[in-house]
Amino acid sequence: MVVLALGMVVMFGLAWIQQLILSHINFGPVMLMVEVRGILINLVFYMFLNLVQHNYAGQQVHLELEKVKSDNLGAQYELLKQQVNPHFLFNSLNTLKSMVETHDEETIDFIIKLSDFYRFTLESRKLDLITVEEEMKILNSYLFLQKARFGNGFTFTDTLGKETLKTLIPPFTLQLLVENCIKHNIVSQSKPLHIRIYDADQKIIIENPIQRKLVPEDSLGVGLNNVNMRYKHLLDQEIDILDNNQIFQIKLPFIHEYHHH
After folding, report:
1. pLDDT in tens, 221-249
2. Contact 177/223 with Cβ under 8 angstroms?
3. Is there a contact between 170 and 148 (Cβ–Cβ < 8 Å)?
């Protein structure tokens, strides 16, 4: 605004100087009209150029801010992809130790599944999305390892349709959600935890009856927050969470294709 006001003062000043220089010549009202029209045209043109300049500067600032925001979100997302619960590895190694000591026949299978799980972990860090079918392989390896630890302490029912398996999902989403179920609920043979995964209304749904532990396990809330943050980063959407003190339910929107936000 200061520059615009200064420009107007300069233009009117030049017009006044012109009048002083040419005051001895009587051009009549026609000349005055031409001068006023010239001033107005110059003023409009100057305002237009000033507006274009400010708009361009504003766009540059906006682009810089978006780039900084995108870089920051990208860095956060890379950290999210690399989060692996160290307690899971510790518990798995303890389970493996017990199986070796008792000469359990499934020891070899356990080692293979544990190896598969961490191979998936390393490979998935390079990817934003995988098919639900590939994600189920990760989840099945995880469930095998947990079955070795808890036995019949929990059940898992999967009724995902074939078309749902072709949709996309951030790696380790289902594994983190199932891990969340096991972490926060009683898991025992006398009171098995029933975990169910199915699809409805263009969403993947994971649910379990709530049977909270008497002594809650220490948790940073990484699992659920991780999943929600990844959906916000990739799709600009949040997951649906239902907790009515009887059923805990997570709804994940279908991803048919990926357009980066």
Report:
1. 566 777 888 888 778 888 999 999 899 99
2. yes
3. no
pTM of the model: 0.64
Which residue shows structure tokens 């000043």? 13
pLDDT at res. 6: 58
Contacts 24+ apart (CB under 8 A), 47-53: 47/4, 50/3, 50/4, 50/7
Fold of domain 79-253: Heat Shock Protein 90 (3.30.565)
Query: Own/partner pairs for 91-98, CB < 8 Å, 24+ apart?
Result: 91/149, 92/145, 92/149, 95/145, 95/148, 95/149
Report pLDDT digits (tens) over 117-157. 878 777 776 778 899 999 998 899 889 888 888 889 999 99
